[in-house]
């Protein structure tokens, strides 16, 4: 009886999540009247704006990941090694993007870095791209920091660092050859989440007027019927692919962790 | 000047003085153990030598060069940790070659040295394994090979045997000592296990509350403890209060027996130390005879440990098991024999 109830709840939950997605995919295949086709997808892929915005967002996502790793890994490492009493403060700071809306961040950027400010980043395309990169890094900070910090928790950071130091390694070598390889799975988890966030982000890109995939999704949604559903399906596939990659990377890690 | 000199080392953490005026001279190729209970400052001394802690005052000199202010990666020191600290992402061979790679040693040379080190620790076929595929003893051997590969000037061992089971500990400590002798490398070994310290070391430093209470050979430390702490910490020691009858000649009364220690003593009362193995059941050929009452009999197999009451003071002693003679019963009055020369006068 209990098992049947559990199955019923599980099926209900699955239906709750899956049925809207089935509807989404089904509608995206219904562009040709009276039959299922990939017409909406063909139209989307043929649109040069899709290619431009998609490739722009992929590039920004990769740059954000690189910037995030360079910023977060040494920070989390240093906090764990030398400033453990600062951990609650750092964690609080990294959680702020979850409670401060992106629109607040972007208006702050525009106010601070507009063309009449002391650092007029919005005055040039590259400057605005840089601002967008910082914005994306801020939005992904809670996920990236948590992922890396969790990874660091699984290894004996202090002893491994001291062992490497006693063998002549400097900080750069320790980070690159000892710490980073041992938290790589966590870093990749954070990276994939960052990728998914950047690919779907709308507010920052729209208000900074950059040709990203998020604003393109919104534009298509406001003006077309079937294509937005095809785009939403593509966005879902990207997100799921990222999650699948996290699972794959975790499963096929070659080595085990050191005892804590 | 000795090869490794620690001069007036002191370390404070806030108001807490963990190491106080610590001095030690270590000759090249010597194996020194820092022995003491938890919190005595032995690991802090080792970490100061490694460069992981900066001394509040004092100086550290290696081969005539002061290294007190050098970073750990500039000191050319090899260290083995209690928790092995092998890099989990690297194979055994990569772990052993890590220090050489950091130094920029050519690849062929690294490969040769790694092979040499793996042969030295008796694991030549395990180069391609990852640390998690090794037992604790094997991991610690690899950690030793990794520390030795870059040819460090000093080897530091921070309780390297503590995480291993008893059998592996004994075999590995013999291996470590043999390798240390073969390479002639100056070594400092931190342990709280007196058996390890006494069996492995050329000299032992017994530490207590941040101070080196006594520095000496294992024989001296065990047989001539300089302080009450050393006497009590190293080995098992009976401490017996005696009344000084003649301070000049060293005549004392222990229970009902008068004993001539033949050395000058302070007047009044004195505490005498006596190792259990210096006492025998029955006087035998010993020069002093005492009478005691058996209170406890512990049968340990080849040895029987007896605890007796000697004029109100407890005394423990061992006797070998004899399958034809039963050990004395609890409550039996027995005669004990000892040589007066084995009685140590315990200082402060």
From TrEMBL, chain A:
Gene3D superfamilies: MetI-like (1.10.3720.10). It holds the Pfam family BPD_transp_1. The chain crosses the membrane at residues 7-29, 54-77, 89-110, 130-148, 183-208, 228-250. It is a multi-pass membrane protein. SUPFAM superfamilies: MetI-like. GO terms for cellular component: plasma membrane. InterPro entries: MetI-like, MetI-like_sf. Keywords: Cell inner membrane, Cell membrane, Membrane, Transmembrane, Transmembrane helix, Transport. The keyword Cell membrane applies. The keyword Kinase does not apply. It is found in: Cell inner membrane; Cell membrane. GO terms for biological process: transmembrane transport. Belongs to the binding-protein-dependent transport system permease family. This is Putative spermidine/putrescine transport system permease protein.
């Amino acid at each position: 009886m209990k098992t049947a109830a559990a199955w019923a709840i599980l099926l209900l939950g699955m239906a709750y999540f899956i049925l809207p997605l089935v509807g989404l995919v089904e509608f995206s295949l219904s562009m040709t009247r009276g039959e299922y086709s990939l017409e909406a997808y063909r139209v989307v892929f043929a649109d040069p704006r899709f290619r431009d915005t998609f490739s722009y967002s992929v590039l920004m996502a990769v740059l954000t990941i690189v910037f995030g790793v360079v910023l977060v890994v040494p920070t989390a490492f240093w906090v764990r090694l030398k400033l453990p009493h600062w951990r609650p403060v750092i964690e609080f700071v990294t959680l702020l993007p979850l409670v401060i809306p992106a629109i607040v961040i972007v208006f702050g950027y525009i106010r601070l870095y507009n063309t009449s400010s002391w650092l007029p980043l919005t005055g040039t395309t590259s400057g605005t791209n840089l601002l967008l990169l910082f914005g994306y890094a801020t939005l992904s900070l809670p996920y990236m920091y948590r992922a890396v910090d969790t990874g660091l928790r699984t290894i004996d950071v202090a002893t491994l660092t001291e062992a490497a130091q006693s063998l002549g390694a400097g900080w750069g070598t320790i980070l690159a050859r000892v710490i980073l390889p041992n938290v790589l799975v966590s870093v990749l988890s954070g990276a994939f989440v960052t990728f998914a966030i950047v690919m779907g982000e709308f507010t920052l890109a729209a208000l900074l007027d950059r040709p990203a995939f998020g604003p393109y999704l919104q534009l298509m949604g406001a003006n077309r019927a079937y294509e937005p559903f095809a785009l939403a399906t593509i966005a879902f596939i990207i997100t799921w692919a990222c999650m699948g990659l996290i699972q794959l990377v975790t499963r096929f890690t070659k080595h085990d962790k050191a005892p804590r | 000047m000795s090869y490794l000199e620690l001069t007036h080392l002191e370390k404070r953490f806030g108001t807490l003085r963990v190491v106080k005026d610590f001095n030690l001279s270590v000759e090249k190729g010597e194996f020194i153990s820092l022995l003491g209970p938890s919190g005595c400052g032995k690991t802090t001394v080792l970490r100061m030598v490694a460069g992981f802690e900066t001394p509040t005052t004092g100086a550290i000199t290696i081969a005539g060069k002061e290294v007190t202010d050098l970073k750990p990666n500039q000191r050319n020191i090899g260290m083995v940790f209690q928790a092995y600290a092998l890099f989990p992402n690297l194979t055994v061979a990569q772990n052993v070659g890590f220090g050489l790679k950091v130094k920029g040693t050519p690849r062929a040379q690294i490969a040769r040295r790694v092979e040499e080190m793996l042969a030295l620790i008796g694991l030549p076929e395990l180069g391609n394994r990852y640390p998690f595929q090794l037992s604790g003893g094997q991991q610690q051997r690899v950690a030793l090979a990794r520390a030795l590969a870059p040819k460090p000037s000093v080897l530091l061992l921070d309780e390297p045997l503590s995480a291993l089971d008893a059998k592996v500990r004994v075999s590995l400590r013999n291996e470590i000592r043999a390798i240390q002798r073969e390479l002639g490398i100056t070594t400092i070994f931190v342990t709280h296990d007196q058996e390890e310290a006494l069996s492995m070391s050329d000299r032992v430093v017994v530490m207590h509350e941040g101070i080196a209470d006594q520095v000496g050979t294992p024989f001296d430390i065990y047989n001539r403890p300089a302080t009450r702490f050393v006497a009590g910490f190293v080995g098992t020691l009976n401490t017996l209060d005696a009344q000084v009858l003649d301070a000049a000649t060293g005549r004392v009364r222990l229970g009902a027996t008068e004993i001539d220690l033949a050395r000058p003593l302070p007047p009044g009362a004195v505490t005498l130390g006596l190792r259990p193995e210096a006492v025998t059941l029955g006087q035998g050929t010993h020069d002093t005879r005492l009478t005691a009452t058996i209170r406890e009999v512990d049968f340990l197999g080849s040895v029987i440990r007896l605890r007796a009451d000697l004029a109100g003071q407890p005394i423990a002693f061992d006797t070998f098991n004899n399958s034809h003679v039963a050990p004395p019963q609890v409550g039996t009055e027995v005669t004990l024999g000892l040589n007066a020369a084995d009685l140590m006068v315990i200082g402060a």
